[in-house]
Design a protein that fits this description.
290 residues, 10 helices, disordered C terminus, mainly alpha
Length: 290
């Protein structure tokens, strides 16, 4: 029983890791641009579809790198011609824009690739199990977890240890002061959007072999990712990280003890958190991104 619980905890941490990749992108865009991106799930789906097409040519490792890069370039175009017009505007306008963009993207995927799910196999080198005593776990899932942790760590280092990160954090805390210093946040916002959608695409590549690839996959994962953002607190890096881990573990344990309540458990968790912390776990840091 203990081994089975440990397996579900690891599965929960894995789920939390890919929720985190998407939720961090959501909170990055909101923190600097004030835009709630309901189209974020579409970039996740694009990452998965690009991976399917690229894997035949460059292999899984190549797709893991090139798919997020391709989606980041699309994100730059979307940011330049759509998102940029709605920063710091009425949030309802941004919600309408990104909701419409999400619908267009999903229908475009149906039109181009068809409505049926597309299979995507785990690469042969990553098939099999890892044995630690009596504990057995999927090699591919461990690799997924390692890649996600590396990506999050890299993002944290970028935001905390580089001049780019210092400007982004200053822009989150006091954009007027940054403008008074003669620093334009426009190129920084474009880079933030590119990073955010690349993280979502990375999650899409990693999950393509497990959850399958279909046009509605972005909408399915976006709701859970928003739950993570709400629990952690909009604008809080470590709040989102902690929330993703908690949500993942709670969901994993619920799958083991009460499978029928697995999806409902994360919404119940959100309700409990908001009853005591209406702004989320680290909501008081919404303007600080720390």
């Amino acid at each position: 029983m203990l081994i089975e619980i440990l397996e579900q905890v690891l599965n929960g941490l894995l789920a939390g890791a890919y929720y985190l990749l998407i939720a961090l992108g959501l909170t990055l865009i909101f923190s600097l641009g004030g835009l709630v991106n309901l189209a974020h799930g579409a970039f996740y789906a694009l990452g998965a579809y690009f991976a399917v097409k690229l894997a035949d040519t460059v292999g899984f490792a190549g797709a893991l790198v090139l798919s997020p890069v391709a989606v980041a370039l699309i994100g730059l175009v979307v940011e330049r011609f759509l998102f940029r017009r709605f920063y710091r505007e009425d949030p309802a306008l941004g919600l309408l824009l990104t909701f419409g963009l999400a619908m267009v993207a999903e229908q475009a995927l149906r039109w181009i690739f068809g409505a049926s799910p597309i299979p995507f196999s785990i690469p042969p080198a990553l098939k099999g199990q890892v044995f630690v005593g009596d504990f057995v776990y999927s090699k591919y899932r461990l690799v997924m977890l390692a890649v996600a942790v590396t990506a999050v760590a890299g993002l944290w280092l970028l935001l905390r240890k580089t001049p780019f990160g210092r400007v982004v954090r200053a822009g989150v805390q006091n954009p007027d002061m940054v403008a008074a210093l003669g620093i334009s946040l426009v190129p920084y916002m474009a880079t933030v959007v590119a990073l955010a959608v690349a993280l979502a695409a990375l999650a899409g590549v990693l999950l393509a072999a497990i959850s399958g690839v279909h046009p509605a996959m972005g909408a399915e994962i976006l709701t859970a990712s928003f739950v993570v953002v709400v629990i952690g607190g909009l604008g809080s890096f470590w709040g989102v990280v902690l929330a993703a881990l908690i949500v993942g573990v709670v969901r994993g344990l619920t799958v083991y003890f009460y499978p029928s309540a697995a999806e409902a458990s994360i919404y119940l968790l959100m309700l409990l958190v908001l009853l005591f912390r209406p702004r989320g776990l680290f909501g008081e840091r919404i303007q600080r991104f720390e």
